[in-house]
Each structure stands twice: as C-alpha cells, then as structure tokens.
Specification:
- This protein is of the alpha+beta class and 448 residues long.
- Among the domains are: 102-187, PDZ domain (Pdz3 Domain, Roll); 192-371, 2-enoyl-CoA Hydratase, Chain A, domain 1 (Alpha-Beta Complex).
- 38% of the residues lie in helices and 22% in strands.
- It is built from 13 helices and 19 strands.
- Strands 3, 4, 5, 6, 7 and 8 form a six-stranded antiparallel sheet that branches. A six-stranded mixed sheet has the order 10-11-12-15-16-19, with helices on both faces.
- Strand 5 (136-140) and strand 6 (143-144) form a beta hairpin.
- Helix 12 crosses helix 13 (436-446).
- The longest helix is centred in the first third of the chain and has 31 residues, at 2-32.
- It is globular, with a radius of gyration of 28 Å.
Length: 448
C-alpha cells in the first residue's frame, strides 16, 4: 500500500510537471514561433534542396556554392561594411593593410544605394585619372552595378597588373557622366608624405611643418614618427596634418597616431556594441605629446573616413588641434574579421566608434571648427598637383593655371597657425592659452 501511494504521488507530480511544461512551451511558442531559428532553418533547407534539384540551370551547382551565395546575401544586406569573404577576398583584405595590392586604387563602399568612391589612393590609376571622392560607379564593363554586392564590385575592379577595365562614373555634384578605361596596377602605398609628395619634410614658411597621411596601414605610425623627427630638428613651430582623401585603415594605427600628440593615459576612442565583449576603451600609451606646445591644424574633407575621422575627432575633442575643411564621410563603425573554415572570413559590423566626448562618428562625420569649402575645380587642381607627373602632363595655359592655383584649405590652416603663434607671443608664454582652439579665436582677429 505504501509503495502504491508513493507511485501515485510521483505520477501526479509528473503529470503536473508535464502540464506546466506544455503550457510554458505553448506560451513561449507564441513569441518564439515568429522568429524561431528551427522553423526558418527548415525553410532554408527546403529552398536549398529545391534549388539544387529543380533549378533549370543548376546541374553543376554545389551545396558549397549555394550556401556561400546565401551567406553573401545575408551578410551583405546588413549594412555597407559587413561582408562574407571567400578565401580570395580575405587575402585581398589582408594585402590592403600591408600596403600592397593589385587594382585601380579607389576605395569604394555602398552609400544611398550607389557604389560610391570614398577616396582615390594617391599615385594610383584611379587617382591619376581624376576620379574624386563622392563619384559613383554606375557601370563596370558596360554592366550596371545597381544589383551588385560591394564584394562583387571589388572583385571586378581588381585583377592582374596591366589588364584593363572600363568604368562609367557619375558625379552627383554636376550630374556629369564620364567613361574611363583604366589599366590595373600593383598598388604600393606610402602612408606618410610631405608637401611635395616625398618623404623629405622640409620646413615651410614661418617654421610650419606639413605632413600628409594618405592611409592608416601597418607602417603609418612608424612613418609619422620619422617625419616628426625631421621636422622637430628644424625647430618646427606649427604643424598641418593633412587627412583629406584618407579612406581610413587600421584602428591600432589611428590610436598610435593620436598618441604622438597626447599625454599618456588620455582617452583616444571608445567602441560600443550589442555584445559587451565589443565594448572597449583605447587610451594613449605612448611617450606623451612629442611636439608639446606646438599648435596643430588638421585638414579634412568628404574623403576623410574611418581612422581619419577617429584621429581628427579625438584631437578636436581634446582641443589639441583645430580641424579645418569640410564635413567628413561618416564611416565610424567597427568591423570584426572572424576567420572561418576553408580560408574564408566574416567581416561583421559589431560596434560603433565614439570620440572622447562620446560623439558618434558613424553617419554623422566630423564637423570642422573652421569650414572651408572647395569647388570641384579646386579639388581637381590639388589632386593633379599631388599626382606624380600630373602637372607635367598638362600643356600651355592649363599647366600654368594649375601650377599657380592655390589650396584654400591649406592656406587657411597655415594662417591660423601663424596667428596662434603671433597671439601667443603677444600674450606671453605664461598665458599661452589652454588650447589651440582657444588661441584660434584670438588668431582669427590677427589674420583677417
């Protein structure tokens, strides 16, 4: 009798537990069913099988091809920067950060549904052809890019050195459409250059130095260190750091560049994502400000993106530099690259960058302290002067016009730095102002 009683109690308990579990399952199913991975994976498997077996031209299709195509579509629809990388694309990505790869030398991304040029890389076929930031690639080899994923666009732009590719470009500012036939080349990138496109770094008028960073690759901070050493030896009294048409690059290099101008321990940039593991704080870990007391101006434009925006936003926030030029591109998201089986990789947007004052960069950009806009002609002339042999390729009046043309953004930055030094001298070292930005207010009056 006792044994039957125990079995009865256990039976009732099991029945109650089963009923409760069923209710919880049914209740949760009301929500989970709408976005259940199991139901959707079942649908995916069904479609995969249907395509593999019944698609009219699918005789040679493999499951590998179909799944990779599905991954490309899924990740490519998230945002312009996330991408499923097959082994070849992953190798290309690794090559870019090392400073050498094959192609046309134009950095592109999807913007407002168009394949848009972020910036042409200096000394490359795209740069020498006169392609500008903001130009849209509407056709490649006569075929529309409208439905192409950004990865497919990059694949078509790259190729063996010496091979040609035709592009149809549209310039939104003028509505002009133009055809280009470009020859691919090995893209070797010098990250840091002087005003003459070399690595000599002569001191300018009024002892104001000039450094241009074209991209943030593995050697950028190292090359910047060498440039600063040469300028300091010439008793530099001001520095223009030119980040125009700089499409960005490696976060570590952006942080190391900021370290050259900040005290050790200073916050440079933070990242925040849905996964707490993506939240990070990057602080200056260098030797401290290497040109302490020397005022700085940073040049930016629409072609300044990603790492270039981190540097300009950080030094602007901390009032270490005055930012001069135009609103930047607004690419301030973090892409984590995860290697996958078989040599492929997943590049996924996992967080956003924030400046020291917690301003978001993504889709906002950096607003300059002093706005100086360029016309298309002024921009074209500046890029022509930068291109090796650019001025020499011109004839007669056109060549003289470009040679005599000015760079309004650089001129304004130089004037501000001269004014800051003059203002500081008049007010004495003890009142040298708390920051260059504050000094600039006084300098504006002196340079007008």
């Amino acid at each position: 009798m006792k044994r039957q009683f125990i079995f009865g109690v256990v039976g009732v308990a099991l029945a109650a537990n089963l009923a409760l579990g069923a209710k919880v399952y049914l209740d949760s199913g009301k929500d989970v069913g709408k976005d259940s991975p199991y139901e959707n994976l079942e649908m995916f498997s069904y479609v995969l099988e249907k395509v593999k077996k019944d698609y009219v031209d699918g005789e040679s299709m493999t499951y590998r091809q179909l799944v990779r195509s599905a991954l490309e579509g899924m990740v490519g629809n998230l945002d312009p920067h996330s991408e499923f990388l097959d082994p070849d694309k992953f190798k290309d990505l690794q090559s870019e950060t090392k400073g050498q790869f094959g192609g046309l030398g134009i950095v592109v991304q999807m913007r407002d549904g168009y394949v848009t040029v972020v910036a042409p890389i200096e000394d490359t076929p795209g740069f020498r052809a006169g392609i500008l930031s903001g130009d849209r690639i509407v056709k490649i080899e006569g075929k529309s890019t409208e439905k192409l994923a950004i990865g497919e666009v990059l694949k078509q732009l790259r190729g063996d050195p010496g091979t040609e590719v035709s592009l149809t470009m549209q310039r939104p500012s003028t509505g002009e459409t133009k055809e280009y036939k470009l020859s691919r080349a090995i893209i070797n990138v010098d990250m840091v250059k002087d005003i003459n496109g070399k690595r000599e770094f002569p001191i300018g008028e009024n002892r104001i130095g000039y450094i241009r960073i074209s991209q943030f690759g593995e050697r950028t901070a190292e090359e910047l260190e060498a440039a600063l050493k040469k300028l300091k030896a010439q008793e530099m009294k001001g520095l223009v750091l030119d980040l125009r048409w700089n499409p960005g690059g490696l976060l570590d290099q952006a942080v190391e560049v900021c370290e050259k101008f900040l005290p050790r321990g200073q916050l440079v940039v933070s990242t925040e994502g849905r996964n707490p593991a993506q939240n990070s704080v990057r602080k200056a870990a260098g030797r401290g400000d290497e040109i302490k007391g020397v005022p700085m101006a940073i040049l930016v434009n629409f072609g300044s993106a990603s790492a270039a925006e981190i540097v300009s936003g950080c030094l602007q926030d901390l009032e270490r530099a005055i930012v001069v030029g135009e609103q930047t591109f607004g690419k301030g998201s973090v892409q984590s690259v995860m290697e996958l089986e078989g040599g492929a990789a997943l590049r996924l947007t996992t967080a956003k960058y924030y400046t020291p004052s917690h301003k978001v960069i993504h889709e906002k950009g950096i607003t300059p302290d002093v706005e100086v806009l360029l016309t298309d002609d002024e921009e074209r002339d500046i890029l022509t002067k930068r291109a090796p042999g650019g001025v020499e390729s011109l004839l007669g009046d056109e060549r003289k016009r470009v040679e005599d043309s000015r760079d309004p953004q650089l001129d304004r930055a130089m004037d501000l730095l001269k004014g800051i030094n003059l203002f500081s001298e008049r007010n004495g070292k003890s009142e040298r102002v708390k920051s260059d930005k504050m000094a600039a207010k006084g300098a504006e009056q002196l340079t007008r």
